[in-house]
C-alpha cells in the first residue's frame, strides 16, 4: 500500500502527487486536531526510543470487535469512536465495513501497532502533520523521562573522546628504565620475524603471523597481562625459577620446560621471542605441541585448514581461562578471555512469519563471520552492484571495471545480511499463528568485535557428488571498511521504513559510528589445490605491506595484496589502528 501525500505515482510518463485524502480533510473540518492530541494519552513508546503504538493500557491486547481476532496483520482503532476493527486483504475488511455502516467521520482510524493513520474508505495509509507531531512529542517526553531514570543507559551512550596517552614523570622513568622503543630491525618493523615450517605447518604460521600483529592482542601480551611464569607458578605451587614474580629475558621464550604450558602461556612466550629483536626465524614447536594436546584429532604433520586452526586455537585459550576462573562468562559481552574480548561479536537472527509478521529473534556469539562468494552475475549486473559502494583507491575501481564476474567483500556482506526465504522443509513454529509457517530469515550484526575476521568459503563439499573442490575465484576486498550498513540498527530501519526511532528496544549504540569503521591489517591467502596448497600472510605494518611466507619475509606492493586470493581477512577498528609512520614526539 502506498501512503497518500508522501509517495509519488508515475502517470503518463510524468511524476505527480496524488490528491489528499478527502475523508481526512472532512474529518479535520469536523473535529479539528483535538482527537489527535487526545490520542497522546494512549501512545506507548518502547524504551529507549522504541516504536510507537496505541494502547489504553500497556498490557492490553487489541481484538477486532467483529471477529474477536488479534493475530491478523493489521488492527485499527476508529479515531472517532475507538472501535477496534481488522483489515487483512484479501479477506473482508471489518475496518471498511465499520466506516461504511457509520455516519461520516468514522473513516479515519489509527494502526494500533504502528501509530499511523489509515483511511478505511480509501484503504490506504494517510499522513497528517499534526498527528505525526503528537507522536514525536510523546516520544520526546518518554525519552526525557527515560534519560532521567536510567543512569546505566546514559553511561552506555556516552561517547568517550579518544586522547593519545602521554606518560607522566613517574611513568616516564619506569618506561626509560624497563623498556626499549619498538623500532626497525634491519629495515623491518620491530616484531616482524619469520616462522619456520615444522612440516606442513604453513596453515599455523599464517594465522600466527596475523595474531602476533593484531593490535589489541599484541598490546595485551606485551604489557604482561598474561605472565606465563606467574600462570605456571599458580598452577604448580612453586616458583619454577621465577624470582619475585619477574620474568627472565630469554629470547627463545621456552622457560619452564618441565611443565605443560597453556596456549595463552605459549602465546606469551611467542610474543616475547618475536619481539625480542632477534631476526633469525623462530620455531613455534612448543606452541604446536600444546595445540596438539588441545586438538588431538588434528595432531599430525598433514596439512590442516587455517580457519579451523584459528577457531581451535581461540577455543583452547578460552577453555584454559574458564577452567582457571571456575565460572562461565557470556561470549561477546567483553567479560571473557582475551581471545574473545578481541574477536567476539554478537550476531542477530530474525525469522519472520510470512503469514502474520511475527518475528522470532535470537542472538549468537561469534569469533568470525564465514561468507559465501557471490554467484557470477555478469559484467552488467555486477557493475550495478558496485555503484552502491565507493571504490577504495584507483586500483579497486580499475579492477571493478575490468572484472565483471568478480566477487567483492562488500557484496558478500550484502548477501549475508539479505533476507532469505526458508524452504517449505524449514517451516518454523509461529507463536502467534500456533502452526508451522513459511518464513523469512535475515542476519545482522548486533555487536561488532574489536577485530573482525572474515572467512571466505573457498572449499566446497558436495554430499550428493561425494567430492570436494576449491573455488579459485578472485575476491576484491577494501583496505577501509564501513560496517554500519550491516548493523542490526541499520537493518531494522531499512526493514520498518523511515520512522525516526530505533525499533523494538534495539540499542543503536551497541556499535556506534566510531567503532563501525575498520582498517585491514592482515590477509591470509591460499594457493594451490584442496589437498596440496600453501598458506601465506600479508601484513600491513608502518603503512607498508609485507609477505610472510613461513621463514621468508619480503616487502611487497599493495597491488600484490589486492591481487591475492584472500581466504581470511582481519580488520581492526579504525580507532585502534595506529600508523607507525606517523611518529609522535613526547614533549
Write up this protein:
The protein is an alpha+beta fold. It folds into two domains: 120 residues, Herpes Virus-1 (2-Layer Sandwich), CATH 3.30.40.10; 331 residues, Cathepsin B, Chain A, CATH 3.90.70.10. 30% of the residues lie in helices and 22% in strands. The protein is built from 18 helices and 29 strands. Strands 14, 20, 24, 25, 26, 27, 28 and 29 form an eight-stranded mixed β-sheet that branches. The relative contact order is 0.10. Its main location: nucleus. One of its GO terms (molecular function) is zinc ion binding. Belongs to the peptidase C19 family. UBP8 subfamily.
Give me the number of helical elements: 18
The CATH architecture of the largest domain can be given as: Alpha-Beta Complex
Question: What is the oligomeric state here?
Answer: single chain
What structural category do the secondary elements indicate?
Answer: alpha+beta
Q: Determine and state the CATH class of the largest domain.
A: Alpha Beta
- pLDDT below 50 for ≥5 consecutive residues: which ranges? 1-16, 144-151, 153-162, 238-259, 379-404, 498-511, 579-587
For the sheet with most strands, the description reads:
8 strands, mixed
| Beta-strand percent range | 15-25%
What is the fourth-level CATH superfamily of the largest domain?
Answer: Cysteine proteinases
Determine Rg (CA atoms, Å): 30 Å
Q: Could you tell me how far the N terminus lies from the C terminus, measured between alpha carbons in angstroms?
A: 65 Å
